[in-house]
Amino acid sequence: MTPPLFAIIGHPNEGKSSVVSTLTENDSIAISSTPGETTRSNTYDAKAQGKTIISFVDTPGFQNPTRCLSWLKENELSGAAAAKEFINRFSADSQFHHDCELMTPLAQGAGVIFVADASRPLSKVDLQEMEILRLLGLPRAAIINSKSESQQNLEQWKDAFRKNFNAIRVFNAHNANFTERIGLLETLKTIEQDWSPALVAAIQAINEDWGERAQRSAEIISGLLEESLVFTQSKLIANESQSASSQKKLKESYREGLIKLEKRAWADMKNLYRHHKLSIDFDQQSILNEDLFSEKTWQAMGLTQSQLAIAASTIGAGIGLSVDAALSGLSFGVFTAAGALFGGGAALLKGQELSKMKVNHVPLGGLKLTIGPNRNEQFPFILLDRALLFHRVASNWAHAKQENTLEIDSNKKKGDSSNWSDKDRKLAARFFAAIKSQRQDKLTQLYPEFNQLITNVL
Fold this sequence. Notes:
This protein has 458 residues and is α/β, with parallel strands linked by helices. It folds into two domains: 5-191, P-loop containing nucleotide triphosphate hydrolases (Rossmann fold, 3-Layer(aba) Sandwich); 214-457, no CATH class. 50% of the residues lie in helices and 11% in strands. A six-stranded mixed beta sheet has the order 2-3-1-4-5-6, with helices on both faces. A three-stranded antiparallel beta sheet has the order 7-9-8, covered by helices on one side. Strand 5 (140-144), helix 6 (154-164) and strand 6 (167-170) form a beta-alpha-beta unit. Helix 16 (422-437) packs antiparallel against helix 17 (440-457).
């Protein structure tokens, strides 16, 4: 089945390139506020599951709409044949360069997506451009891509669109999420019956591809948790005199190591959603710009004290066993005996208290400092919430959007896990405990269920 072809047409600086960028998930397309930046027609493909499903042609604006309209009326031509004849007639005339570039995909039978900034008044030139497209008679839809919140000209634009186009859609290319992109493609199905099967197949492929990305993201998040919860850092020192300064450096190295693991997982998800310009360093107001261990992060992410107590209490003595193992049995079973108490409330630690420093004598002389793995019961929920939030941003971030801004009120819990059911939070707690205790049998048992939970959330 041949992928549908659409030409993106409109007045200069109306957002044509932005529409193409968002629909094709291609943030390498040049987007400028300077009118007339696009001087040639460029084709970009929307892909799903490794295949081209729709092609979009980013065209220049009309150069001579008045003369183009007069020529069409004089010659009484329509469709692809009219576009071909226009190119034959004016291709050698530099004054019609933009017009011929615009007509090229129409000569190939492309459908038309007309983009207009409906926040400005309708002009005579706009009406001429719409009339040209109406006379050509190709399947066509109009997109209202308002650059401001003003609605005073909207009805005027809609009235003109109804007279000249088969369908109308409000679509802000700088903010459109996945659902809105699918909605636009659903609209395009209605402009030409013969194209409907190809567009139905394209939408199905996009939805399947989106589901696969969610599954892959869940695997990335689970992998991040598995690595972070067993992560350790060690350092050999010659004697006690070096211990204090070495411990301080090792603690900082440990924290930086956990941050690097998180950043790597974020980068993997960012690449999964084809973002190359989206920075992992967000706007100063964004909770994602906060350090993993900042007070603001621990206020906004993770569970409340009561939620954490309920989630942790489900594993009871299992927590104690994992602590005993981490201390090489030096606790003499004290933590196992107090397992239920520890799980029920004593696990409510602050963000700085992640893991105790262990100091061991080395047989051939010197000391070995070791920090990790992490024993803070809140930490995996913080890490999980941040990963889920980053995924939400990356998966819904329009590729035409230039700035990185995500504002979240950190005065109350904003992470996903605090809104889960007790059952789901307990599942997560058991999964985290299995990682910490390095019980491979338990981890193998819980992994599919936990992964499905995350996939459903995503």
